[in-house]
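Last lecture ended with a question: if I hand you only a sequence, what can you say about the shape of the protein? Today we answer it with a concrete record. The protein is Aminotransferase. Below, first the input exactly as provided, then the predicted structure, then a couple of comments.
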Amino acid sequence: MELLSRTLARVKPSPTIAVTTKAQELKAAGRDVIGLGAGEPDFDTPQNIKDAAVAAIAAGKTKYTAVDGIPELKQAICAKFKRDNGLEYTPAQVSVSTGGKQVLYNALMATLNPGEEVIVPAPYWVSYPDMVLLAGGTPVTVEAGIEQNFKMSAAQLEAAITPNTKWLIFNSPSNPTGAGYSWDELKALTDVLLRHPHVMIMTDDMYEHLAYDDFKFCTPAQVEPALYDRTLTVNGVSKAYAMTGWRIGYAAGPEKLIGAMRKIQSQSTSNPCSISQWAAVEALNGTQDYIATNNETFVRRRNLVVKALSAIDGITCPVPEGAFYVYPSIAGLIGKTSAAGTKIENDEIFATALLEETGVAVVFGAAFGLSPNFRVSYATSDENLVEACKRITEFCAALK
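The predicted structure:
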């Protein structure tokens, strides 16, 4: 009898976590390392949110809660969806979990049967395909390359749908590219989905409030109300409110689906942290002013990184509409050899050589399903970004 399950053999560890862990290990060993791998704002959690958590502790709100969220948080989530997206939900249609990742996992575990397919546009967040595999489904990737601004076309979506398609996972602004779908671009996709009533939509809106320049965020059920009953709208407090460690994600959707997700959660983790839930109530109900201030910083950092990387021969770096990532192509560097003698045969080798030779940690593009690229998170200080870009420039200039 084998110790480990066959299901585990279908998945791999998170590459983004692996890169961050490697960078931390090198730092602990005394190396001068700049980590650009983590998808985590470097801003502190706003004071009003921290105060709400302290008040919750002082008030003794430290016990078990309802499995999928306290009523006050569900009401705040309903108010958020109405305020920001024009979507009407009741608390019975809302689920709160330990981070957005658990929301997605619960939904897939509650719905997928062997042989059922989930369309995942690539580049994708690293966990989407593996969560589908863990749930017994089959991920179907649709590549959207740099030539189409990393956005899947309506024709590509139409071609990917089969009788076995259960879900489309949709993410805008995107991790890893920062690409955001306009209203018209999203409407073209929802028009396709209207023709295929058996397909559900799982929309990951985690970077909703990190939208820059003239880009206006929109979400599928908002663009096409006829898809409301087929859409699970997923969000959380980690990115916009700098609350990554608080671990609160949420979703709203069909009541039957939410009930099934509650059942999964009741037999796995049970309720999210009570203190984090009260903090999230304040995040959603309290002032939102700091989001615009933080976004000004992100835009400055984005422009800094795009300008520096675009100036490197062999690298193409599009300007993203949102999130805090850039996803440059290194197509012009493939086949060259580094100063230390490493031949750059693919983006994983590029990222490994960059870390070993310069101390800059990035995530290789193959982890996100599209090569040859790498992801830079610019959610760190200007000083770190300037120095990292300098090292990347020098590393690339030394390639022969």
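Comments.
1. The mean pLDDT is 96.
2. Residues 8-44+290-397 form a domain with the Aspartate Aminotransferase, domain 1 fold (CATH 3.90.1150.10).
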